[in-house]
Amino acid sequence: MSEIRVRFAPSPTGNVHIGNIRAAIFNWLYARHTGGKFLLRVEDTDRERSTPEAIRTLLEAMKWLGLDYDEPEMYQSHNTARHLAVAEDLLRRGLAYKDDKGGKGECVIFRMPKEGKLEYHDLVKGDMHKKAKDVQDFVIVRTDGTPVFHLANVIDDIDQRVTHIIRGDDHVENTFKHIELFKAIGAPIPQYAHLPMIVNNQGKPYSKRDGAAFVGEFREQGYLPEALFNFLLLLGWNPGDDREVLTRQEMIELFSLEKCGSSASRFDIKKLQWMNGEYIRQTPREEFTKEFVSRVQAAGLSVGGVNLDGIIEQMQVRTKFYRDIPSNCRYFFTDDYPFDPKGVSKRLQGDEVPALLEEVADAFAGLDTFTQVTTHDVVAGKAASKQVNMGVLIHPVRVAVSGLMEGPGLFEMLELIGKDRVIARLRHVAAILRDPAKQLPTLETV
RNA sequence: GCCCCCAUCGUCUAUCGGUUAGGACAUUAGGUUUUCAUCCUAGUAAGAGGAGUUCGACUCUCCUUGGGGGUGCCA
User: What is the pLDDT of residue A1?
Assistant: First the structure.
């Protein structure tokens, strides 16, 4: 039994489309599951677009997703001489011919069978067949002397000794051509598996117009590679039971081409967002803390002198994207925090608010221990004596001390900010509200 | 035009002739008169249409419809 060898063969365009990277994921998983080799071939024959920069983008995307490959990457452009030599040989043996149908000069055409059936077994789509007369001869070398995709792709697969070709649905028709090429060259025919495409809400191929379509964009938007990987895997594959969030190890163990579906799947960003949150919540506390601290520090804030563990405990469960951490947590680390205009208009607008905030501040000042329990009791007492719901006090205080309308429970928040800061903030905000010449800094102005 | 592929809740999917058609996302309600998030509970929601095979069809066959892909110098 020869070893299983699969490959990912993208053309580096400067962006890596999610449909492409999903093919890479399925190939990678198949190799890891079977103990085979996962290879990378850079189809860089388009000299215009295949810049070193574009290749770097491709390699970075793969690294980010943990798609490691087992042999040095192959560059298709380095194999052009061989492609042309094979074409010459096919010509010599009468399996290809020269033609000038378009009047552009002579190109080399590969001769397809004219009668009978063409067939192959697709590992995901089943038995495939076509009448030979429905597949035409095709160009393998252009008029300008450069090899065409079909030729280069097949020869490189032969050279890399690829045994299983796992790629997008859009290549199904090409497969009949490629198989004849393998036969003509005298190479063993690989196994094929065609994955359904990722489409948008209209059922059209998912593109840039539909939102983030490239790996780099998801990375920039704060998605974790593990979440994107897991989500893309679930588009067209399932483990056979109800599990959805899987570890890399589980994916490798459970993966099989037989469980791949054959209908196109729509890209549902909502589910990706949910999954990203799942991964953030599952992140070990230590690792999340590291990420949290680096984001906060990158925003120019210091994490010294605060109850970092307490803040983390409150915020990990609320974090949807790492990139939102600084704006959601700024008030923990500095008194210079912006106010959400909606919060101001909804919670700090009334004439009674300044007095209310000062009253609460005064009551807090009398506390020896400042905890969620003692602050709760103070506010509860105030609400009772005023005969109002606690929310009447809680909401203005929350916006005053954090600038935001959301976050941890108020009393947890107060304890984390600390007595002195809370009191100072309440008085400071009250003073600004009383002074018609002053204004609270809003999100926009900061 | 011709050829090929596909078709279960709004979405991703399970089901491989006999199920109250299951799960997840989203959504609705409740737990929660302190928000947001988490968590828990409950709910709404699906076999495109028509023939046939069969005791019995979401499942097999055919047709229609819809969608996608391909169709000599893109990959």
Answer: 59
